[in-house]
Amino acid sequence: MPQKTNGYKDAYSRIWWDKPSPTITTKFYQYCSGRHGYPEQDRALSLREGALLQTFPEDYMFFGNMASIARQIGNAVPPLMNKEIVKNCILTFL
């Protein structure tokens, strides 16, 4: 017989202003798809808010429909992380 659970502890929760964000997934813009609720409002994060959490510049342009843009953001290596990886690779080969 399956073991009884108390439900999913990370569904429908909010991010915190003063704690690290959870991983940004491809469906972060849907409130029912994880822990991506806005800290003070009853809504999910916007596409732009997700992009900013991923460290995309404010003026970065995404193309496609909402789901396509969310997938681009959720599947991306955060730009600032990528910058550090490249910098370390270059230093390794010098």
From TrEMBL:
GO terms for biological process: DNA restriction-modification system; methylation; negative regulation of gene expression via chromosomal CpG island methylation. It is an enzyme of class 2 (transferase). It holds the Pfam family DNA_methylase. It catalyses: a 2'-deoxycytidine in DNA + S-adenosyl-L-methionine = a 5-methyl-2'-deoxycytidine in DNA + S-adenosyl-L-homocysteine + H(+). Keywords: Methyltransferase, Restriction system, S-adenosyl-L-methionine, Transferase. It comes from the Bacteria. Its EC number is 2.1.1.37. One of its GO terms (molecular function) is DNA (cytosine-5-)-methyltransferase activity. InterPro entries: C5-Methyltransferase, C5_MeTfrase, SAM-dependent_MTases_sf. This is DNA (cytosine-5-)-methyltransferase.
